[in-house]
Amino acid sequence: MWPLVEADLHSEFGIDLDEPGLLRKRSWRWLRTRTLGLLTADTRIARALDPGDSKT
Q: CB–CB of 47/7 below 8 Å?
């Protein structure tokens, strides 16, 4: 699932997690807020976790 989150963070917010030290400079709240935001948008992770998704 993390690859979906990583891809969505980049496409939705322009956050490149490959940037050295990025997550060390940010709080857990910062990451949590953006991750939860991905679940309320039409994103890869939201579609993967949707129980109504016909692919599962």
A: no
